[in-house]
Write a structure and sequence with these properties.
The complex is a heterodimer of chains A (670) and B (297).
Chain A: E1 2-3, H1 16-27, E2 30-34, H2 44-73, E3 76-83, H3 84-87, E4 91-97, H4 107-121, E5 128-133, E6 137-144, H5 147-155, H6 166-180, E7 184-190, E8 210-216, E9 224-231, E10 235-236, E11 244-251, E12 256-264, E13 267-276, E14 281-286, E15 294-303, E16 313-320, E17 324-330, H7 336-347, E18 353-359, H8 360-363, E19 371-377, H9 386-395, E20 399-403, E21 420-426, E22 437-440, H10 445-448, E23 460-465, E24 470-475, E25 480-487, E26 490-495, H11 512-523, E27 533-534, E28 538-540, E29 552-554, H12 564-569, E30 572-574, E31 579-584, E32 590-596, H13 609-617, E33 631-637, H14 639-669
Parallel strand pairs in A: 4-5, 4-7, 7-8, 10-16, 17-18, 17-19, 19-20, 20-26, 27-32
Antiparallel strand pairs in A: 1-3, 3-33, 5-6, 9-11, 11-14, 12-13, 12-15, 15-16, 21-23, 22-24, 24-25, 25-26, 28-30, 29-31, 31-32
Chain B: H1 8-12, H2 17-31, E1 44-49, H3 61-67, E2 71-75, E3 82-88, H4 102-119, E4 123-129, E5 133-140, H5 145-154, H6 167-176, E6 181-187, H7 193-205, E7 209-216, H8 218-221, E8 229-233, E9 239-242, H9 244-249, H10 251-268, E10 272-277, H11 283-296
Classes of the chains: A alpha/beta (670), B alpha/beta (297).
Chain lengths: 670, 297
């Protein structure tokens, strides 16, 4: 029997209250002179005593009620000893590390072999569960007593490209012990990587019901070289103007010279020697990347290969493409807005956009699929077919940037996105009556790189009703300035003031150029491209979840990663394997995503014996004891019962108290 | 208007018991709507023919002048009566739950009776008693009797160890009260009704009209305790713890039974019994006295 919060016993002082009420206060009698006591009888004193006896029941109930409340707050508990035989024998858990590092030198095979031997040593009636762990835990076999099923589950464990996490393993073991309510004896077969240990020791706590028995498949650290990272552009416009930086790392290695080879599309492009310091890293740069048009599977490879060749190569994807075309649609050629927009777009060195300008009438029947995005600048009267053309284009994954200007009031709704146009607010230049940007959502990619809009003066802006759209920027009168709304597979961005340096002075402001370039990048989905991703990363394949056109995803083995239903509905996928994922959108856009294992797996340093011993101590440590005879103590909390009893007592107290008062009232009436 | 001066609380604010008595009686008489010159012995009753031996002073010479016959003029109440006031001055009479104690109230009532008697030319006397007779003013209708009575009443205070004992003082009274008259006993009568009536009843045997003015405080009739109290007897200093429940439930029945028994036994032996709460005006007591006085005429 123990108490989790014994400090609450101080609440017993409250017992003095009923003592004072019932005993001290009741005993106090005021001497009052009276003419004669002839009509008062001596037996009255016993009547008072009898009445006090009635009070005593109420007094006892109140004392008990308070005591129980205090007891409930102290969280009493007792420990029930559940012997292995009585509460069920300990479940034996075979946990096999299936992380990327287990691919090195047949570690996984050794682990499985040791696991099979351990399984054979178990007694006949033991319940055995088989799990494999990496970044998460996968149950290979629920607890069974069938040795054949256990053996099959062990042999069925496959290596993955995940990183391993002892925190996840500990959490799973704790959950198993709590769920099954029996002791858990965990046999862990792993390379015991130091890098798998969580930053916070508490995350690896095993809990009282878990006994850990580690089975390391390696005893000491093995040297390993790896390509740690590649810095390369995701899109390539000029193969001669590119810079690829490859960083090579040695883990537990001495000084060494290694050759780094850059390849793309299956062709070797260039090789360079690099000198690595002892247990350090070095970088090498390449200034040309000859790749064919379209997506290229590129890689940086280290040679000669070491004992762990799987991390000697790092994949990345490069798309060689012509500059992306941006269609600028306005009511007339040669507008001021067009001039400022074109200048801003072409001033960015690596933007690689080619702008085409045409009138609304010309764009009405134009196929829009080749354009990365379309800018609709202050177009009032829409020619027949243009809006429908734009809508189809956006719903198929295209992007539209609507700039509202003086002619916006000609329509009730913003084209394609459908926000209601309420009014055009004009602030004359006289008297400094202009508006500024009051709120900016700097998390949005369009304004993330240039969030300083404080000095921009807006003299005229169109007020639109956001109606659920994401408001990226607001003016000082709370009117939305920049809105985004997903439409189908695509995006529509609405800017509520023209870009002509008349309605505002934004084009003269330093933030204008990065805003235009980043917005174009965002709309053209160029900001989403990274040369490579890590195993386990989440990749978004559509803007919003829900039924739509199917997105085809092929995994590194060339198989469909999604079922047909998933392809039409899911918003993203988890990149589970290293290699290249191909993503084909219904609009015709194609993406190649290179995926590599976490490079922490390349550090094959093992967990120190001291840390391992500490880890074991967080569980039910019984180094020399037999698990079969082990008894587990389970803490049974009693506060709930105390509270329930207090509740029942409060009902009884109310009943007795009411009865007492009722008697008093009757006497008074009499 | 003078009725308001009959309220005990108002009387308590008047200094001087003579003024109290005058206020009470004048107020009471004014309330009767009768002349202030009201007097029983001045009222004409009848004419009677003169017979030898009659006092010639009573011959109505005006009638003789007209008729040449002698007639005697007869009046009502030409005989005075004795009024003896017996005032209990034991310590229990000092009990007061408000401004006027029972003894104060008894003194006001006694003073008023004496004043009223003196107005009617009755011989008034006073006996103050507790365990024994502490003061005695012999009945007299002479000039200066009223101040003597009022002075004796002002000196009537409960002594340090005074307890009520009806046997000894009432035995003593019988030596003083020789002529028949009215005996007014003012007391709280804390004694067994049987014993009490047995003690007082001999006064009646001498032809006296005996009025028992039973004076009780309102709180003695209806105690109001909000918490258990330790009651201390004012006469014998004994103490008893009493709960509010008992005082509300059982005591009223006991006091009612006591009053009923006293009233019944008193009337049974021809004593007039009159219960007076010290919270009520005095006129009710005076009215009781006058009704008895009528019977003496």
């Amino acid at each position: 029997m123990g108490f989790l919060t014994p400090a609450f016993f101080a609440g017993l002082l409250a017992l003095g209250l009923p003592v004072w009420l019932h005993l001290l206060q009741q005993h106090r009698s005021t001497p009052v002179p009276f003419a004669s006591l002839m009509l008062f009888e001596r037996r009255l004193q016993s009547s008072v005593k009898h009445r006090r006896l009635k009070y005593l029941l109420l007094f006892a109930l109140r004392l008990l009620l308070l005591a129980l409340l205090v007891l409930a707050f102290t969280h009493p508990y007792f420990e029930r000893r559940a012997s292995a035989g009585a509460a069920g024998k300990a479940v034996k858990v075979i946990a096999i590390d299936h992380s990327f590092s287990m691919r090195q030198g047949g570690r996984l095979d050794r682990a499985k072999q040791q696991a099979l031997e351990a399984a054979r040593s178990f007694a006949g009636g033991d319940r055995v569960e088989v799990i494999s762990f990496g970044a998460g835990v996968q149950v290979e076999q629920n607890p069974v007593t069938d040795p054949a099923a256990v053996r099959a589950a062990i042999q069925g464990v496959r290596a993955t490209d995940e990183r391993s996490s002892f925190a996840e393993l500990a959490r799973a073991l704790r959950a198993t012990a709590q769920t099954l309510q029996v002791p858990v004896e965990a046999h862990v077969f792993s390379d015991m990587q130091k890098s798998s240990w969580p930053p916070n020791f508490a995350d690896a706590q095993l809990g009282g019901g878990v006994r850990l028995i580690p089975h390391p498949v390696v005893e000491e650290r093995e040297a390993n070289f790896a390509v740690e990272s590649v810095l390369a552009p995701a899109r390539l416009y000029d193969p001669k103007k590119v810079r690829v930086q490859v960083t090579v790392a040695g883990y537990g290695t001495g000084p060494a010279r290694r050759r780094v080879t850059l390849a793309a599309g299956g062709r070797e492009i260039e090789s360079k020697e690099v000198d690595l310091p002892a247990n350090g890293r070095a970088s090498v740069e390449f200034f040309a990347l000859e790749a064919s048009y379209g997506w290229n599977r590129a890689e940086a490879r280290l040679s000669p290969a070491d004992a762990f060749p799987d991390d000697d190569v790092l994949y990345f994807a490069v798309e060689r493409t012509e500059p992306r075309k941006v269609l600028f649609v306005s009511e007339g050629r040669g507008s001021r807005a067009q001039l400022y927009f074109r200048t801003a777009l072409e001033s960015a060195s690596d933007a690689a956009f080619a702008m085409e300008a045409m009138t609304a009438a010309q764009a009405a029947a134009l196929p829009l699929k080749p354009y990365a995005c379309v800018v609709l600048s202050d177009v009032g009267a829409m020619p027949a077919g243009l809006e429908e053309n734009l809508r189809r284009y956006v719903e198929a994954g295209g992007a539209l940037w609507v700039v509202l200007g003086r002619t916006a009031l000609a329509r009730d709704l913003v084209p394609v996105s459908g926000e209601q146009v309420r009014e055009s607010r004009y602030s004359p230049r006289e008297g400094e009556r202009f508006r500024t940007v009051a709120a900016l959502d700097t998390a949005h990619p369009a304004v993330r790189s240039a969030p300083r809009w404080e000095g921009v003066k807006f003299f005229q802006a169109v007020a639109v009703d956001p109606d659920g759209a994401r408001v990226v920027a607001r003016l000082s009168d709370e009117a939305p300035l920049l809105l985004e709304r997903p439409v189908g597979e695509g995006r529509v961005l609405v800017f509520a003031s023209p870009l002509d340096n008349i309605a505002n002075d934004f084009p003269l402001h330093p933030s204008f150029v990065p805003f235009v370039v980043e917005t174009a990048r965002y709309l053209a989905r160029m900001e989403e491209s990274r040369a490579s991703q890590q195993v386990g990363a989440y990749y978004e394949i559509r803007a919003a979840a829900g039924a739509g056109a199917a997105v085809e995803v092929r995994d590194p083995r060339g198989q469909r990663a999604l079922s047909l239903t998933e392809a039409a509905e899911v918003r993203g996928i988890t990149l589970a394997e290293r290699g290249y994922y191909e993503i084909r959108r219904p609009s015709g856009f194609q993406e190649l995503v290179a995926v590599n294992p976490d490079r922490q797996e390349s550090d094959l340093d093992v967990l120190p014996a001291e840390t391992l011993a500490l880890w074991r101590n967080t569980g039910q440590d019984s180094a020399g004891a037999s698990v079969g005879a082990a008894a587990q103590t389970r803490r049974v909390s009693l506060w709930w019962y105390a509270l329930l009893a207090a509740f029942l007592l409060s009902l009884a107290e109310a009943w007795v108290g009411n009865r007492h008062l009722a008697v008093q009232e009757q006497r008074m009436k009499a | 208007m003078l009725q308001r001066f009959l309220d005990p609380a108002t009387l308590a604010s008047i200094s001087g018991i003579d003024l109290v008595a005058k206020t009470v009686v004048d107020g009471f008489i004014a309330g009767l709507h009768r002349s202030p010159d009201f007097g029983f012995s001045q009222e004409f009753a009848e004419y009677r023919a003169y017979v030898p031996g009659d006092d010639l002073r009573h011959v109505d010479w005006n009638v003789f002048a007209r008729t040449e016959r002698c007639y005697l003029k007869r009046y009502h109440g030409e005989t005075n009566t004795h009024v003896m006031v017996l005032l209990d001055a034991s310590r229990s009479m000092a009990y007061a739950s408000h401004r006027v104690s029972k003894l104060d109230y008894a003194r006001y009532l006694a003073a008023s009776l004496c004043y009223l008697a003196s107005q009617q030319r009755d011989a008034a006397g006073l006996i103050v008693f507790d365990e024994a007779v502490t003061q005695y003013v012999a009945p007299s209708g002479r000039q200066g009797q009223l101040p003597r009575l009022l002075h004796a009443l002002e000196r009537a205070e409960p002594g340090p160890a005074s307890r009520t004992d009806y046997l000894r003082p009432f035995h003593h009274f019988q030596q003083f009260i020789r002529r028949r008259g009215i005996v007014a006993v003012l007391s709280d009568f804390y004694a067994p009704p049987d014993e009490l009536v047995k003690t007082i009843a001999p006064l009646r045997f001498h032809g006296n009209e005996v009025i028992l003015f039973h004076l009780l405080d309102p709180r003695e009739l209806e105690p109001d305790f909000r918490e258990p109290v330790l009651l201390v007897d004012m006469e014998n200093d004994s103490a008893l713890e009493v709960t509010p429940e008992y005082a509300r439930s059982e005591y009223p029945s006991k006091i009612s039974a006591h009053l009923a028994a006293l009233s019944e036994k008193a009337r049974g032996v021809g004593l007039d019994y009159f219960l007076m709460s010290t919270g009520r005006p005095l006129d009710a007591g005076l009215r009781e006295y006058l009704s008895v006085r009528q019977g003496q005429m």
